[in-house]
Every structure is written in structure tokens, then in C-alpha cells.
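Lab notebook, bench 4. We co-purified these components, and the gel suggests they stay together. Before we commit to crystallization screens, I want a quick structural picture of the whole thing.
Request: model the full complex, all chains together.
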Amino acid sequence: MLAAIRPDSWNFPLFLHVFGAIALFGGTASVAALGFAAQRRRDHAGVLARVGAWSWVFVVVPGWILMRAGAQWILSKEYPDSDKAPGWVDVGFIVSEPGAILLLVLGSLLWLSARRQGAGRAGAVMPWLAAIYVLALGAAMFAMSAKP
Amino acid sequence: MSPYDWLLFLHVAGAFLLLGGTVLAGLFTFFAVRRERPSEVALLLGLIRIGVIAIMAGSLLTLVFGLWLVHEAGYGYGDGWIVAAIVLWVVGNAAGEAGGRRLDKTRTLAGELAAQGDAPSLELRARIRAPLPLVLSYGSGLVILTVLALMIWKPGA
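Here is the predicted assembly.
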């Protein structure tokens, strides 16, 4: 079979969407790795929590915005009548929109954890929350690429 | 789901691991450069290993399933955008490996300094801020990002 070629006008929004999703995936995985490392290295928990908080500000949040804006842009081109969008598009919405609330909770926990030098319950919960979101992004990636 | 759908999923999963691992490695390098205590530099550079595992798995998946997709989708192995993507994939991985090896030597030095009192060191500061490993590491990320752009635009396809 010859793969379907998209209209050229779809490429830039798709690039923004994929680039944002990858930044979000890598940034959230970084936050999870820092959180788990902080639990093992209590002597450096403070610096790891601060690095996690800055990663959230500079990579996770911009990644989510790019991913979501790119998604809306390409959806408007590919399915101008969004009622007719296929089911795999809904998986993206399910992961991205409640995911924004989860990311806000994650950011709050990171801020609390950084203020307390990585100590306390916020630092213990935060990496698990980040890991769950990484798995959810993996599920969305499956839906977006395989389009089951 | 057709074989094409499965191959595309595995190829894209590889791209996420490759570029996601690159984001993680880039972030930890960026923050390690800004730390003074050797133990903190060693810890952040040590965490890059998680990214390296993702990069290695992603590199393998993108190449194997990418080449399979070329056949399945009816493209030609000699198409310009595919040849360019393979060349850039090799260049990006080689640059990342060379930069990573230099940063790993810096991590070893940081670990030694941490064991000897953990005082800030001018030698460590010079090594962690040396331009060549940083250019190689960040440059490899940009090259791999260019491969992503080629995969989306497919110029000449």
C-alpha cells in the first residue's frame, strides 16, 4: 500500500502537536525521575525538588500548551465538523483535558515539595502522579498513531 | 488494525522514547551546568542514564520499524527524505554518544570530588561548562528534531 499523503497545510500544526507532546512526555518523565531520585537521596531532595519545579515551569507546561493548541489546529483542518471526528480523537481529549488538572496538581505538589526541601508527603506523592501521567500519554500516543 | 497501523505505532513509540529521552538528558545537563557542589553535579549527570536507556531503545525502534514502514507503505529506500533521515539519525546518535561520553567523564570527576569533601572546584566548573560536550549533546537533540520534521513533511514524497 502507499501511505496516504496529508495536505501540506496540515504539516505545521501536526509538527507543533507532536513536538509539544514529546516535550510534555520527556518533561513529565523527568519530573517523575527527579521525584523518585529524591526519595532515595534525601541529602539532595531539596535541589532535586527545585529542578523538578523548574522543569514543570519551562518544559511540562509549554509542552502541554503546544500539544493542545496543535491538536485543536489540526482537528479544525482534518475534521472541520468536530461531531464527525473518530473515536481515537476522543482518547486525546480524555488524556489532555483532565490531564491539565492533573498537571496543575502536580505543579502545586512540586512547589510545596521545593519549599520544604523535598521533605513531606508532597514529595512522596508527586513522582507517582507524574508516572501515571506518563502512562496516560503513552495510551494517547497509541490512539493517535495506531488509530484503532 | 492493519500491519501498517502496528508498524506506525511502534515507529512513533520509538520516536517518543528517543526524543523524550533527549528532553530528559538535555534538562538534566542544563541544570547540572548550573550547580556548584560536585555531589549535585554527579547526581544530575548520573540521572541522564535514564534518558540514555530511552534514547537507545527509541533509536533501535525508530530505525527497525522505520525501515519496515518504508517497504510496507510503498516508499523507496532511495527517496531523498528517507536517505536524509537515515544520515541525520546516524549523525545525531554519533554526536549524542560523543557528547555523552565526555559528560560521563565529568560525572566521574564530580563523584571523586564529592568523596573528597564536596567543595566547589574550578576544574569541575571548567569541565562541565566546556563548549564541545554541550554543543555535541544539544546539537544531537536538534539533529534528531530535524528528523522528526522530515518524517512529518516528507519533502519530495
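The CA atoms of residues 95 and 101 of chain A lie 10 Å apart. Worth comparing against the SEC data before the next meeting. Chain A has a mean pLDDT of 90.
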